[in-house]
Structure formats: C-alpha cells, structure tokens
Amino acid sequence: MNWTLPEILPPCAETFRRAQARQAQLTKPPGSLGQLEGLALRLVAMQASERPVLERVWISVFAADHGVAEAGVSAFPQAVTREMCRNFVRGGAAISVLARQIGAALEVVDVGVIEPLEPGAGIVDARVGSGTFNFTQGPAMSGTQLDRALAAGAEAAARAAGFGAQLFIGGEMGIANTTSATALACALLGIEPERLAGPGTGLDDAGVRHKREVIETALWLHSPAGCGPLEILCRLGGFEIAALTGAYLSAAAASIPVLVDGFIASVAALLAVRLQPGCADWLIYAHRSAEPGHRLILEAVRAEPVVDLAMRLGEGSGAAVAVPLLRAACALHNEMATFAEAGVSSA
Known about the structure:
Elements: H1 13-23, H2 35-47, E1 57-64, H3 79-90, H4 94-102, E2 105-112, E3 123-125, H5 143-163, E4 167-173, H6 177-189, H7 193-196, H8 205-222, H9 229-236, H10 239-253, E5 258-260, H11 263-275, E6 283-285, H12 293-300, H13 317-335, H14 339-342
Parallel strand pairs: 1-2, 1-4, 2-3, 4-5, 5-6
Helix pairs in contact: 1-2, 2-13, 4-13, 5-10, 6-8, 6-9, 6-11, 10-11, 11-12
C-alpha cells in the first residue's frame, strides 16, 4: 500500500461554543427543534462559521462492477451498471433529478465498470480495472488497485474542494455491490451474514439465502478476523466502495462536511472511521436504509440518521433527499431572533 492516510483536524470547538450560546437564546424552548439544532451546531463547527450555509453541494457517484456478480447474487444483470451510469449523465436517474432539485454539481466517476463509459460531460475516467475479481475465489483486488481506487476518491474530494463545496455526497453504482458491502460489514463487525444480508436490488427469500451462502464462502476463504481495514477492503471490497472511503477521508481532511448515504456508503464510512477515527467528526448520516444491515452499521458508528424513509436505492439519493433539512437547520440557526432581539420574555 502506497496511499497515505490524510491528516484530519477536528471541527472548530470555539465556534461551536459561541453558536451553542446563541442558540440557547433563540425564541423557542430549548431542544424544541430536535435534531435540527444539533445539525446546525455541527455544521457551524465544521465550517468554522457561526452562520453555516449549504449552497454549494457536490455529488460524486462512483461506479464499478463486481466479479462476485457471476455467483448470481443480484436480481439485475451486470450490464445495468453501465446502463445506469448513462442514465445518470442523461438526467433520468433518481440522483439526477434530486441533484437538479437541490442545485448540486453531479459527476459520475468510472472506477471500474467492465466496459468503459463513453467520454463525455459529467463522466470522470478513474478506472482501476474492469471490475473486481470474484472474491469467492480470491482477493477482490490487488494492493495496487486498492491504492488507485482510494486515490480516485481523494481526487473527487479535491474537485469538490476546488468547486468550493460546502457539502460532499458520495454515491455508488455497481451490480452486486450490496454483497460486497455486506461481506465487508461482516468482517469489520464480526457479525454473521444471516444478520446483515438483505434483498439489495430486490432478491426474494431464496435469493437472500443464496447471497448469504456466497458471503459465508468468501468469509471462510479469506478468514478476515485479525486483518486490518485495508486488508479486508482489498479482499472483499469493490472499487467504488474503496473510492468512497478515500473520498470521505480526503473530504474530512479538506474540512468539507460529508453527508453519508445508505448501507453501502455507510460501510465505506465505517472503513474510513476505522482507518482515521477523526473522520467521524465530519460525517453526517442522511437516512436509515431499508436494507436490514444498515441498522447495525449505524449502531457501530453511533449515528442517528436525519430521516427514515425506507429508501434503499443508493446512488446518493437518500443523502440528496436530506439536504433541504440541513439547509432548513442552517436557516433556522442563522435567521431566528434571540429573546433580546425580539423583545420576548425568556424562561
């Protein structure tokens, strides 16, 4: 491994304290805005500004194929990865619609789709290979490939920083990537596949059982107990999951708040936090996915998501849906009057 973990500094504690004191004087009973209050204070500290704003949002959707797809763990054929990437840039996918709704910049990063995406606006070529190797037969990727995938994520975070992003969202696309994410989660948390494996793209009960068996085979083969996060990622991961991990670490190092999407994105976040615990201070979890394993991941990172809408699409869609709530939190914090300003008697 040649990729160097970036240094991550904590959010600004002094700005947090000043904003907390002001929030205690706003014209409302303490705590009456629930999670919106805490979200505003976290964004204050992340942006080192007592008036946080989220006008410039950057979304990178990382796409790659998975060798384990040949084991029949998805309800959709592998060709869908490439087809959906085309849909992203043509504006017809859920994340495309949501990016327009919130005025976000959207890019698709080809980290390893089997057949390369056609060059064009909105597509970044960061290919590591033509899909990972089937991890039921050997490691999913080489150390060199892992280096390059992590770097592809770091480069996306650098583009976000150059854009002046005030919020980074990472999405993913890759048929069979819930199988990879579940295997990673099992290895990282020491939890059996029976508790983590879910329907992904829509598997029936028999399909979920088969998926679980495939993951059990991989865990038996790789014996990940005692392995570090990077070794686990190398053996069981996907290129896009590695890129998400690199993006989260590098966005945090650049002091850009990160809004984490659902199950797969949260597994990448867990990897990032295991590698650099300070990264946790820069991560806001957008939603609780309907994928059953997501609850256990959120518990592991001690996160309370912004919303729970039973979504499980991926692409960064759940995170994009949560952006208006974060903007509302900022607006309430910035624009509400204090008791003194409004001439209202305090408690």
